[in-house]
Amino acid sequence: MADAAERPGTRQRPGVGTTSVAVFRSRGRLTGPAAALRRFQRGLERPLTPYYLILGSAALILVLGLVMVFSASQIEARSDGLPFAYFFDKQLTSVCIGAVLMYVAARLPVKLHRALAYPLLLAVIGLLLLVAVPGVGTSVNGNQNWLRLGGPIQIQPSEFAKLALVLWGADLMARKAQLKMLDQWKHLLIPLVPMGVLLLTLVLAGGDMGTAMIICALLFGLLWISGAPVRMFAAVGGVAAAIGTLLIAFVPHRLNRLSCIGVTTLPSDGSCWQGVHGIQALAGGGLFGRGLGASVEKWGQLPEPHTDFIFAVTGEELGLAGTLSVLALFAALGYAGIRVAGRTQDPFIRYAAAGATTWIMAQSMINIGAVLGLLPIAGVPLPMFSYGGSALLPTMFAVGMLLCFARSEPGAKAALAARRKKTRNKQDRGGLVGLPGRTIARLGKARQRRER
C-alpha cells in the first residue's frame, strides 16, 4: 500500500497525521461568514441590483410612511375637527398619483427626460414668480411659498424647483461634457450657478430656508460630479456660507433655531420646544418602541408630528429598530443612485442620477439631523415618508427617473432580455405538457423552420 503522503488528495502534517480528502479539498474555499459576505458582494455586483434596490427601498419607505402618517396625524386631525383618517386619505391619494408619475418616469426614454428640462424650468420660474404676487401666493407657517389651486388643493412650487434644477443642470453639463468644455472654470460655473442663484432668490423671497439649503446642496453635487477643483468649491462654499450667515443673523427665528442645536432640556423662556420634545420622543421609544399608535408626544406636545418630525414619532413608536430600518432604506436608495451614476457612460444619466440622489439624501440628512438635534430645524419633510403631496410628487418622479436610468445600463438591458427569453421558453414548454413526444418534436421542428 502506498504511503499516505503519496496519495493524491491528502497532505501530511507533523504530529497530526493525514487529513481527509474532503477536508483538503475544502481548503482555499470561503466558508461561514466569509462565504456569506462574498455572496452578498456578488449580489451587489449584478446588473439589475440597483434597479431592485431603488424600487424596493422606495416602495418600503412609502408603505412605512403611510403607516406612520396614519398613526402620527390622528390627534392633529381631531384637534382641527377633522376625521381621524383625514391626513392619511390625502397622503394615500398623493401616493397613488405619485405611483403613476413614477411608472411614467420609469418608462420614458432618456431623451424625453432631457426634453423636459427647459419646459419644466420655465414653468417652475413662472410659478415661483406667481407666489410672490400679493393675493395669489398663500402663506403657511409664516412662509409665502404656496399657491392655492382651489378648495383645499394647494401646491408648493419650490418643491418642483429641485426636480427642474436636476434635469436642467444635468442636460447643461452633459452638453458641455460632450464639447470638452468642463476643463474651464467659467464653463463649470456659468450659467449653472447664476440659474441656481435665481432659483434661490425666488425661494428665499418666500422665506423657505430649508428648500434653499437643498438647492445649494444640489448645486454643489452637480459641480462635484462635473470635476470642479477643490479651490473652486472653497470659493463658492465661502460665498454661500457668508450669504447664509447674513440670512440667519437678520431673521430672529432662524437665529433661535440655530441656538437650539444640541439642547435636550427646555430653557426657562420656553424656546426650543419642538426640538426638545423631538429628542424626548426618540428617547421614550427605547429599543423596540412603545408600540404602533402608542406615542405620547403626538398628543399635542410635539408640533408637526406627521410632517417635519415624523421621524421622532417613528422612534417613539417603533424604537431604535424602526429608526435604523428607515436609515437603512435611505442608505440603500442612496447606494443604488450612486451606483447608477458611477457605472453609466451617458453623461446626462450620470449628472441627473447624481443630482437626484444628492437631493434625496441631502433632504433626508437635514430632516433627520434636525430631529436628532444635530442641525437647525429647517422645516423640510422626510422624502416619501412625511405627509405632503407637493414634496411627494416630484420626489417620486425623480425615483422613477432613477429606475429608468438603472434599466438603461447595457448590462441591465441584457439581463432583462435574457429573463424575458427564459420566461417565454418556460411558457412555451408549459403549453406542451401532456402532448405525445412525437407531437412535441413535430412542433419544435416547425418552430425552427419558422425562425429560419
Task: Map the helices and strands.
Blueprint: E1 12-13, E2 17-18, H1 21-26, H2 33-45, H3 49-79, H4 86-107, H5 110-115, H6 117-131, E3 137-140, E4 143-150, E5 153-155, H7 157-178, H8 185-189, H9 192-205, H10 209-225, H11 230-249, H12 252-259, H13 273-285, H14 310-343, H15 347-371, H16 389-407, H17 410-430, H18 437-451
Antiparallel strand pairs: 1-2, 3-4, 4-5
Helix pairs in contact: 3-4, 3-14, 3-16, 4-16, 6-7, 7-9, 7-10, 7-15, 7-16, 9-10, 10-15, 13-14, 14-15, 15-16
Region (Disordered): 418-452
Transmembrane segments: 51-72, 84-104, 116-135, 185-203, 209-225, 232-251, 318-338, 359-378, 384-406
EC number: 2.4.99.28
Structural domain tally: 1
Strand content: under 5%
Structural class by secondary-structure content:
mainly alpha
* Major beta-sheet overview: 3 strands, antiparallel
Euclidean distance between termini CA atoms = 61 Å
| Order of the strands making up the biggest sheet | 3-4-5
What's the total count of β strands?
5
State the shape: globular
Low-confidence stretches: 1-26
